[in-house]
UniProtKB/TrEMBL annotation, chains A, B:
Upper taxonomic lineage: Bacteria, Pseudomonadati, Pseudomonadota, Gammaproteobacteria, Oceanospirillales
Listed InterPro entries: Cat_transpt, TrkH
Location of the protein in the cell: Cell inner membrane
Primary localization class, coarse: membrane
Keyword Transmembrane on entry: yes
Organism annotation: Bacterioplanoides pacificum
Protein name: Trk system potassium uptake protein
Length: 482, 482
């Protein structure tokens, strides 16, 4: 381990991140909303901490190795979540406690979108902007993480993309190519954000709301500037724009990269993960709409409108809302909630287990049945037309098992804090899948649960975003031994 | 497929099974409890149906193949569960509906132990005997299924035992050796039952209760002749005897077979599944007892007594009770319930996913972490000192994935019937793991849920007992095509 280099990297990161408090600072001055000084202090604090961590080791140079990659990746999120707490604590409104501020900040960075805040409509504009911007920046980090870093670290079968998917990264060393790739990906991400914001604005949102919601839409984040979330606008046009950009942002950004570089949509059509994703979403919609109508929950038109929106926002793990799906009848709350376990495609800003993994697990289930019928046949599992290596399949299974185990451990921990069964079950799901809203007590916000529960769920969000193994490796004795 | 042979086998089976109504018939005459005629009619009906199915095809001979094995295995349980309904429907008390009788009968045969009945203490003795006996016979069937049939069919990685465990069956054809093996296994099973019954009797049970409870103990069944289950006796001695025999019956009967043939306990000590099993049980006990005491639920002595008993009865998937664990504080109900997912060892009468599978999944999880640290190392997964083949590991993963999927589908189906979240979640778990009691509305019995829910849960019990794939293969188009 090269702790000097790690300190240098994180120091630079913090100094850079301190600059991101400038936009909310300007918003605060513009609206004169009383939070200007909080943002100025946050800027100085963050820059100062970064500077102190960078100064003594600024000349150290070492080639970073995979092992350092794990540590930097985990610290990246922790350090940014920590420094992200300053404005929430320093501003008089909301003036959060450290626990609440950390939860909110990490929830933003990981694009989970679980919130401890209520009364959003009465917060300073700058704080609202800042929350939305946290998710947007987090989304950027996630794309680089998902497209470049995790595949390189070999987490949970994601090395699949290095060899088998036309992604931008086929290299296994932490080289300057990350910077190059990152630039291209961020450019795409920025374009999507602008397109989404313009769409919202044309559909009737204010400029402030349009930008804010475009941030949390392309980041699959789900934060909103209103307590009623997107339901505040009560506009079918805005909802359809949101549905479109949520779906686009749930696709592998490697595909967007390819399309942008080759000026061609051909790869979208050939991608089997994408096909599976749309089949799952389509299937979910076809179950939801009739169930809403037949239980007399809504009229036909409303069933279509609310059904599509809620299914897409939950299944993509965005977590906006126009209706409280946790109150929908019979199996619908649980069905929608289960869809979030599938989540977005690999290499997207979405959460969950990722479509490609579910697809591989499904294909192996089918293969097992065929093997029972033809015990001696050799049946490869394929993505598109290429067989997937056993190594990748094992990594996917390992991921699946650890996901289930993490779920159970976290749920038991929450139950130990005194939460009820439904709340504990859904809070873990909402955080591990980086979805945001749960069922029961955490259907609309996380303000009423204990501090202990908030810390457990903070850990859960981080585990979900880092695909568990990145964090798990760090606590394994073998990692520190060798 | 050789439907003639299948009809002949099932016909013989029914004629044989009809004889098992003789003991309850005698019990009924002895106690003059009014159910004599019901059992006589059941005997004739069952024998008659068997005879009619056997007569036209009695001379047909064909070598049975693996494919026929799937069909016979599934029909075996369905046909026996069906014919097991007669006494429940024909006897004036309880005089169950067909749905209830089928649920109760299947619950007996699969040794699930979920019951729709209340007021057990007021039922005819013969009906009580009959229920206990159903579980005992079911347990016999399960041992043959688990030790001989499923490994041969290659279900869920259980072929492991053919090659790698010193089991009695290493052959892959449906030969007369099954009969031989079955005889030895049943002999062991009978000895265990007798030992258990004598133990109960010495500890103070009546002869009737001792035999009845020994039936459901060694079968890991959990039916009782009293509404209060084993709690009726309020005897620490009886509970410790039950704990001992539940643990013994949760071990691989292949090990018992080996010990009996070689007059040696050496294999018990070397078996790594057994070690893992006791570690899991021990760990569960070490969590349960302090949690009971520290939450002021019981005194120290009671915490130890109820903690050990309830943990063992739930973790082995027996489902007796001396205390209502579903009312225990914080995480305990869910913790105990989760233990049932692990269940007994492969080749036992226990339910759940089986210890060996969980052990293999755990070992692979550890391997994944090591692989992330040493990407190029070759790390085999071992049981004892032998590496496990990738083929077996894949089958185990396939099983795990299908288990989770089945769970979700069945839970959604139950929610659609209007059950609440906790009841649906736990009812599926209790039936899929062949445990019996659940949480919420089904904590003590299943009498209050709808008929539709009972049928869904009947299917779930059968799926659990047949390790899902046996049934899943039958509904796959590929099975019928080739
Ligand atoms: K989200
Ligand atoms: K049971």
């Amino acid at each position: 381990m090269h702790f000097n280099v790690i300190a240098r990297v994180l120091g630079i990161l913090l100094m850079l991140f301190s600059l991101t408090t400038l936009p909310p600072l300007l918003v605060s001055m513009w609206y004169a909303d009383g939070a200007t000084q909080a943002f100025a202090s946050a800027l100085l604090l963050t820059f100062g901490i970064g500077f102190i961590s960078w100064l003594p080791v600024r000349h150290v140079r070492h080639e970073l190795r995979t092992r350092d990659g794990f540590i930097i990746t985990v610290l990246f999120w922790l350090v940014l979540a920590f420094s992200g707490t300053f404005p929430f604590m320093l501003a008089e409104n909301p003036g959060l406690s450290f626990t609440d501020a950390f939860f909110e900040s990490l929830s933003g960075w990981t694009t989970t979108g679980a919130t401890v805040m209520t009364g959003l409509d009465h917060l300073p504009q700058s704080i609202l902007w800042y929350r939305q911007q946290l998710q947007w920046l987090g989304g950027m980090g996630i794309i680089v993480l998902a497209v470049a870093v995790l595949p390189m670290l070999g987490i949970g079968g994601m090395q699949l993309f290095r060899a088998e998917i036309p992604g931008p990264m086929k290299d296994s060393k932490l080289t300057p190519r990350i910077t190059e790739t990152a630039k291209a990906l961020w450019y795409i991400y920025l374009m999507l954000t602008i397109a989404c914001a313009v769409g919202y604005w044309l559909a009737g949102m204010s400029v402030f709301d349009a930008i804010g919601h475009s941030f949390s839409t392309v980041a699959i984040g789900g934060f909103s500037t209103h307590d009623a979330s997107l339901g505040y606008f009560d506009s079918a046009a805005i909802e359809m724009i949101a549905v479109f950009f949520m779906l686009v942002s749930s696709l592998n950004f490697g595909l967007h990269f390819y399309a942008w570089r080759n000026r061609s949509l051909a790869h979208f059509i050939r991608d089997s993960e994408l096909k599976f994703f749309f089949m799952v979403i389509g299937g979910g919609i076809l179950l939801t709409i009739p169930a809403l109508y037949l239980t007399n929950t809504y009229s036909w038109q409303e069933s279509v409108r609310y059904g599509i929106f809620e299914l897409v926002t939950v299944a993509t793990t965005t977590g906006f809302s126009t209706a409280d799906f946790s109150l929908w009848p019979v199996f619908l709350p649980v069905l929608l909630f289960m869809m979030a376990f599938i989540g977005g495609c690999a290499g997207s800003t979405g959460g969950g287990m990722k479509v490609i993994r579910i697809m591989l697990i499904y294909k192996q289930g089918i293969r097992e049945i065929h093997r029972l019928i033809h015990p001696n046949a050799i049946i490869p599992v394929k993505v598109g037309k290429r067989p997937v290596s056993e190594r990748v399949l094992e990594a996917v299974w390992g991921f699946f098992a650890v996901y289930v185990l993490t779920y159970m451990v976290m749920m038991l921990a929450l139950l130990a804090t005194g939460l009820d069964h439904v709340t504990a079950f859904s809070a873990v799901g909402a955080c591990l899948n980086n979805l945001g809203p749960g069922l029961g007590e955490v259907a609309s916000h996380y303000g009423n649960i204990s501090d202990t529960a908030k810390w457990i769920l903070s850990l859960t969000m981080l585990l979900g975003r880092l695909e568990i193994f990145t964090l798990l490796v760090l606590v394994s004795p073998a990692f520190w031994r060798s």
